[in-house]
Write a structure and sequence with these properties.
Elements: H1 2-14, E1 25-33, E2 36-48, E3 56-64, E4 68-77, E5 82-91, E6 94-104, E7 107-114, E8 117-124, E9 129-132, E10 151-158, E11 163-179, E12 182-193, E13 198-203, E14 209-214, E15 219-223
Length: 229
C-alpha cells in the first residue's frame, strides 16, 4: 500500500493540473498458460477527485484472450477501500455480461446482466475488503501485504457469482522476477481463499506489481515492461 498511499499524496498536491491522460502507473501483463502465451492485460492507474472531493484512485484494465475480452474499472477511496466497480465481458463479438457495483459504508450493492437475465445482490462487507474477478489482474494493487511470515485476514466478493467469501494473505518473503530481461528484487505474497484456491503475487518494495500466478489454472501473468519506480 505504501506506493499507492504516496501516489495519493502526490496526486493531491498536483490534482489541479492532472488530466485524464496523465497516469500514475500503466503497463501490460503477458498471460502465460502452461508455458504458452494466452493473452494480454493492459491497465492504467490515475488519480480521481473521489467522493466528496476527498481524492482516490481509478484503475482501468482490459484482459484480452482468444476467447473473450473483459474490461473493468475500479475506484478506491483515499484509504484504498473499494468505492465502485464496473465490468463488461465480450465474447463472440457481443456483450455477454455486465456488472455494476457500489460500495457505501458496510454495504455492497451490485447488479449483473447476462443474456439469461438480471441478478441483484446486497451484501454486508467489512475491511479489509477486495473485489476479485477471475480475469482482473489489477486487484492485487489493493490487497494487504503483510511482512514476511505474517498473515492478514481479508474479505472477498467474487464477481463471477456475487458471493462473499473470506481468505488470508501471507507474506512469503524476498524473491525476484525477470521482467523484460531484467531481474528485479521483490517480495512474494500468497492469497488463499476459503475454498482452498491459491493465488500468488509479487511486488517491488516501491509497490509495483510484477507478477501474478494462479497455480490451479496454470496461469502466470508477468509485467511486460520494468516499472518506472
Amino acid at each position: 500500500m505504501r506506493l499507492l498511499a504516496g501516489l495519493l499524496v502526490l496526486s493531491a498536491a498536483s490534482a489541479p493540473g492532472l488530466s485524464a491522460q496523465e497516469y500514475l502507473d500503466r503497463g501490460t501483463f503477458v498471460l502465460m498458460r502452461s508455458g504458452a502465451e494466452a493473452g494480454r492485460v493492459e491497465y492504467a492507474v490515475r488519480a480521481t477527485s473521489g467522493q466528496q472531493g476527498r481524492g482516490g484512485l481509478l484503475v482501468v484494465g482490459t484482459t484480452r484472450t482468444p476467447a473473450h475480452e473483459v474490461q473493468y474499472i475500479l475506484e478506491v477511496s483515499a484509504d484504498l477501500a473499494p468505492v465502485s466497480y464496473q465490468l463488461t465481458e465480450n465474447g463472440g463479438g457481443r456483450v455477454t455480461r455486465r456488472l455494476s457495483a457500489q460500495i457505501v459504508g458496510p454495504r455492497f450493492s451490485a447488479r449483473a446482466t447476462t443474456e439469461s437475465g438480471e441478478v441483484s445482490r446486497e451484501l454486508p462487507v467489512r475491511a479489509p475488503f477486495v473485489i476479485l474477478g477471475a480475469d482482473d489482474y489489477t486487484v492485487y494493487f489493493f490487497v494487504p501485504r503483510p511482512e514476511p511470515g505474517a498473515t492478514q485476514a481479508i474479505n472477498v466478493v467474487r464477481t463471477e457469482t456475487l458471493t462473499p467469501t473470506t481468505g488470508t494473505v501471507t507474506g512469503e518473503g524476498d524473491d525476484s522476477v525477470s521482467v523484460a530481461g531484467h531481474t528485479l528484487p521483490c517480495r512474494r505474497f500468497a492469497m488463499r481463499l476459503a475454498d482452498g484456491e491459491l493465488r500468488q503475487f509479487w511486488m517491488t518494495s516501491a509497490g509495483s506489481l510484477l507478477q501474478v500466478a494462479i497455480p490451479g489454472l496454470g496461469i502466470v501473468a508477468t509485467r511486460g515492461q520494468a516499472p518506472a519506480r
